Task: inverse folding
């Protein structure tokens, strides 16, 4: 089931464009945060995903060999739409995702946990997420870690934007 658009979609997309992050090369600062999430949460896949009008683009990822997917197929688009954390313990049992090509096929997503990454105005630009190929629950400490890592990404995005604005 495609994710609904956030109530502030027009303003959110304008804010996203102001960050000038889409389609930029890999950056070590984000790659380290994503790798840390995968390692600490013991999952094979983690991403920092930006959601634009039509796609979910992976600014940083571990465990995937693709750079983007259609927004309609994105778990992260649901996180952005709600601008709140989203946990799916078993995607095969969730009507929103059970028939997703990424659940019935590679990478066979079963577990997803995502936390919004927000701009200074609180618009959700994307999310940091962890993904597993087995159903599971999200331990409290992993949830807290994801929230802290989302905050770190937000700080790095703001620093990056400030540097670009000053140039």
Result:
């Amino acid at each position: 089931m495609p994710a609904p658009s956030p109530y502030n979609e027009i303003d959110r997309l304008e804010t996203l464009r102001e960050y000038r992050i889409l389609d930029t090369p890999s950056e070590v600062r984000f790659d380290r945060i994503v790798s840390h999430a995968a390692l600490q949460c013991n999952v094979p896949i983690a991403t920092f995903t930006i959601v634009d009008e039509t796609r979910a683009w992976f600014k940083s990822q571990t465990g995937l060999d693709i750079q983007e997917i259609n927004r309609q197929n994105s778990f992260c688009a649901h996180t952005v739409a709600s601008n709140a954390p989203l946990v799916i313990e078993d995607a095969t049992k969730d009507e929103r995702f059970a028939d997703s090509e990424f659940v019935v096929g590679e990478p066979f997503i079963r577990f997803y946990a995502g936390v919004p990454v927000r701009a200074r105005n609180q618009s959700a630009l994307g999310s940091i997420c962890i993904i597993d190929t087995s159903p599971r629950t999200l331990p409290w400490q992993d949830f807290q870690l994801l929230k802290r890592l989302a905050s770190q990404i937000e700080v790095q995005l703001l620093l990056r934007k400030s540097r670009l604005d000053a140039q």
Observations:
- The helical segments are 9-19, 28-41, 75-82, 101-104, 140-166.
- The CA atoms of residues 18 and 161 lie 8 Å apart.
- The domain at 9-162 is CATH 3.30.450.40 (Beta-Lactamase).
